[in-house]
Amino acid sequence: MQANGPVRTTVVVANPNGLHMRPATAFAQAARTYRAAVTVYNGDRRADGKSSLDLILLIAESGAQLVLELDGDDAAIALEPLAALLAAADAP
Amino acid sequence: MDIKRGIAVSPGIAIGPALVLETEGVVISQRTVFPEQVEGEIVRLAAALVGAANDARSHSRSLSEKLGKDIGDIFQGHAGIYEDPKLRTKVEGLIRDQRYTAEYAVSRAIREYVKVFDELPPDHQFVRMRADLLDLEKQVLASLMGAPGSPLPFAGEPVIVLAHDLSPSETAQLDPNTVHAFATESGGPTSHTAIMAGALEIPAVVGIGRFLSDVSGGDMVIVDGRQGLLIIDPDEETLVRYRKLRDDQFASSGTAIESLVDVPAITRDGVRISLLGNIEFPNEAVHCLDRGADGVGLYRTEFLYLNKASDPTEEEHFEAYKTVLKTLGPDKPVVIRTLDIGADKFSSVSTMLIGEKNPFLGLRSVRLCLKNLPLFKTQLRAILRASVYGDIRIMFPMISTVMELRQCQHLVAEVREDLEEAGIPFKSDILVGTMIEVPSAAILADVLAREVDFFSIGTNDLVQYTLAADRNNENVAGLYNPADPAVLRLIRMVCEAARTENVAVNVCGEMSGETMFLPLLVGLGLRQLSVTPRKIPEIKRAIRNITVVDAERVAREAGQMETAREVTTYLREQLRRILPEAAD
User: Taking the CB of residue A1, how many other CB atoms lie within 10 A of it?
Assistant: First the structure.
């Protein structure tokens, strides 16, 4: 893994209600605390991870396979916590 | 420019700004601002978004305490959206590039997002999101409009109301002087929206399907009530064309009415057909008079109950009936249909039945009245008391058995006794009839005929119950057809029973106002029709162009056909023959 290149991981949406307003907002808020650029892909739909609106418009249903991409200094440390939020297993 | 097609239910052309009822009456009054006001709108937007976010967070806190974190989290989600930089950037972009007001920009932006969700199948997980986004729009608009310095609503400018559906209460609230047309996403030709538009005599198009996300309050729209079109944001050429059509329309309608008002409705072979009017409000009685009606064949009394905090008093009923009688004079009949709606529309009994699974087959109309005698008696008393002012008559809707009818008659007798005892004057010989709209009543018409003074065939509901098709459900609207041979047989049955027992019979549903059915109805034996007042001149003209002999032939031939389509094709041909200018 290169220190300065983007890091990616695949995340499956575990939340039975999909990535709806609440988990999307929680994710976006957390994403904003990092300096890295955060992008989430659902197939060919692309969202800025720091925008809850963008994330909702991904229409990521339960079981959807998303790609989380981080690009920046703190990308490495951000990956795990953000991936967990994106899966949103614990959110209602 | 966007052209949407729906069902034309009330003719005419209206051009004007849209008032979108989905935002629950929050009117976006102005679309654009002058260049020097743009920065001001940006500031208003910022403040509104902050305000909405703060409100959401405080809801979140208080609801979390009361109802748990899950509920509170909903509002956290909302707050996140209000604070989303993407939303702010997008709306600001619209304000700067298009010089939109903050309200209009917010609405456009959110409705673009809503469209993404419109494309999902109805059972998709995210379909709820559509409603959430519209709620967010509403909150931001409320935040904007609550602030001082917000633009005033259209001061008296005529608007065109757009909504998913218009309930009777909502339509009852609209001011006929400022609403020039309706267009709705759902609904069919005999839904309340159609009836209201007919009563207000304004153009209306229903059953368009989803379109509200494509329009914002303040957009210029055209409603073409003849072709069933809603045109959003028309281009210049279309606007010019429709303006001309609208102006021509005003010019021609005046002369047609005037020339027919004073001539009688007599067939070419000298048979008189009585033409009465259907009304919802007392002040429509004058439309009936203006059109030369012989009376009011159907006064739908539900509107006395709608949109009220409590049930109308006997006095309110009495005043309404008295007004109509005084308008029409002592000799023209006024037939009052007793209360014909479901429990959900009332204030006093709505707690009785939440969530009936089959409201059309449930406790509504006369059934509801028979279980709520004080309510029923109030109306009956008022009708009897009003009888001193003219020829008022009573009819009961949705009668499905002889027992029901007898119960109603007993009640009338009781009310008579009460009034006599109290020394209150009323006419003792007022005529009492029944609507025939439930198939069982049509089938037993011969038995019912012995117990009433008249029948009134309510074809709207008769068609619905006979074909088991909800007239407001676009999915089955095709089955609902008054031309269906089964319906025609029932009408024939009722007319024959009426003839045998020497009981008067009329048709008061929408079918009576459709010129195509006129020869058929006359041919089946009907000598009285009650139609929406606007249609009286046209029906009168048709009557004057037919002979009863020919009409009977038409009825016989139509009676041999097997499908509604054959009947319709045949009737259209006949209409073309009789009245070339009326056929489409």
Answer: 7
Q: What pLDDT score does A22 carry?
A: 85
pLDDT digits (tens, 9 = 90+) for B534-546: 889 889 989 999 9
Helix (H) or strand (E) run with residue B230 in it: strand B229-232
The yes-or-no answer on residue B317 being catalytic is no
Domain boundaries, chain B: 2-21+159-251, 35-146, 262-578
**Among A7-11, B145-149, B374-378, which stretch is predicted with the lowest mean pLDDT?**
B145-149
Note the pTM of the prediction, 2 decimals.
0.58
pLDDT at B342: 72
* Angle in degrees, CA B552, B558, B563, rounded to 5: 165
Distance to chain B for A77, nearest Cα, Å: 24
Distance CA B88, CA B95 (A): 11
- Interface probe for B, chosen from A15, A19, A25, A50 (most Cβ of B below 10 Å), is A25
Q: Chain B interface residues facing chain A, Cβ-Cβ under 8 Å?
A: 70, 73-74, 76-81, 84-87, 113, 116-117, 120, 124-126, 128-129, 132
Task: Report the pLDDT averaged over residues B451-478.
Answer: 90
Residue of A nearest to B116 (CA): A57
Neighbours of B290 (CB within 10 A): 14
Does position B580 have pLDDT exceeding 80, yes or no? no
> What superfamily would CATH give domain B2-21+159-251?
Phosphohistidine domain (3.50.30.10)
Q: Contact A51/B76, CB-based, under 8 Å?
A: no
Nearest-CA distance from A2 to chain B in Å?
30
- Collect all residues with Cβ–Cβ distance below 8 Å to B137 and sequence separation of at least 6: B23, B106, B107, B110, B111
CATH of domain A7-87: 3.30.1340.10
The per-residue pLDDT for range B231-271, each reduced to its tens digit, is 999 999 999 999 888 877 766 655 555 667 778 899 999 99
Edge to edge, what strands does the sheet with B179-184 contain? B2-5, B229-232, B220-224, B13-20, B159-163, B179-184, B204-206, B7-10
Question: Which has the higher per-residue pLDDT, B298 or B30?
Answer: B298
What was the pLDDT predicted at A38? Answer: 95
User: For domain B262-578, is the CATH number 3.20.20.60?
Assistant: yes
Q: What are the structural domain ranges in chain A?
A: 7-87
For residue B81, the chain A residues in CB contact (below 8 A) are 21, 25, 52-53, 56
CB distance B125–A61 less than 8 Å? Answer: yes
Instruction: Look up residue A39 and give its two tokens.
Output: 């992008």
Q: Judge if B35-146 and B262-578 fold alike in CATH terms.
A: no
Identify the CATH homologous superfamily for domain B35-146: PtsI, HPr-binding domain (1.10.274.10)
